[in-house]
Amino acid sequence: MMRIQNPRLRQGYGGQAKFKIKNCDRGAIITMVLVFGAIFVFLFSGMAGFVTTQYRQIIQKVAINEALAMAEAGANYARWHLAHAPNDFGFSGVYDYRDPEGGLIGQYSLEITQPGECSTMIEIKSVGWASNRPNAKRTILVRYGRPSLAQYSFLTNSDVWFGENEELQGPFHSNGGIRMDGTQNALSTSAKETYTCQPMHGCSPAQTKPGIWGTGNGNAEGLWEFPVPSVDFNAITTDLAQLKTRAQNGGYYFGPSGSFGYHIKLKNDGTFDLYRVTRLRANVNGRDTQGVLRNESNDFDRESFIANYALAEGQCGVQNLVFVEDTKVWVDGATDEKATIVAARFPDNPATNASIIINGNITRADPKATMIALIAQKNILVPLYSPNVLEIQAVMVAQKGAVQRYYYSSSYNPYHTRNRIMVRGSIITNQVWTWSWVNSSGQVISGYQNTESYYEPALIYDPPPFFPTSGDLQFVSWEEIQ
Fold this sequence. Notes:
Helices cover about 20% and strands about 40% of the residues. The protein is an alpha/beta fold.
């Protein structure tokens, strides 16, 4: 017998169950869509935020790089300005930076610090920023310096001969020829391609030689260079009249002594004693590097104390400038402060030009921190009765004459020859200089048997007060600061 199911029964519970199952599936899908949609929105928002952040960082980096370019532009403008107006330091301020079409793309601010009395360094502080990001700034500090004459261990306007017993350290230059038989550790340069070597430099008869020649080690080591441009002594000589005015307005100025001159004795406590020289030793015959016979005394026998004077402590200004307007000034002693001692007489007359005489050792309490400059209108001399071993820690300038010790014959034995002289600093001399006189065999017959010269590179941009400079501004350093 066939059984027929009740249709209502089939649509009853069973149908209701199917309907309920279908409703559950639809709810799960909606839930999943909402969940995944939320995840997608979250990820998209994060991605968008990440992209936005990256974009902002890129814009910031571009702005920072542009700011550095603005700062560099400011430093370059300052360098250009100083090249055309080397004594104008009053152009600090804010400047616009424009593109070739004249559009403003940024600005830079300049702060110029001019050199002091004891420094040739110019500091350029340049801050740059782009117009669209004025808060993104970069700051650089650039230093330029005009080298002082102390860039050379030795500088002369004439021919020169370094003997085989001479040892030189640091660069040296001659506008004339150089006979180099000594040892050296730095470049030597001559303005001459060839020159005529005279008998006084061992060439008898006179003969044509290369700009630099001799038996020294420099040739084999590639330390000889010639010809090179000459150094203009007329352009680099110190304005002594200006130094006189400075000394009269804050420094130390001493007029004519009414006697034979002055003696300045430097002291380790940062002061110096001043004496009036009242009597000289007997005249002696000496011959200078120009071949002129001099019958004179450069050694004093008696002096009277005037006063003690203080140099500026830990500073370097006009109080460290000593100007003496007398024919002769004797200098010796030790110091722990920088100082410049000038000897000159006005009006400028060759017959009365002043000289400085190195009476004994000139040393420094701290070789790294102090240095004396001696600037003479005429000569810087070492006298007959000089110490057997002499040490000079100073930079010396003989503006019109020579740094020298006269030739003294053996009649003044044993003082006609001395043992050793050591110079730490620079020798700048217009005429032929020498500490030693030799015969045709190279034997020292007058002066110091052994000479040593040492270079002070720190003095290139940090010389004693008011020391002369030469040449154009040179790049010294670059740094970015906060």
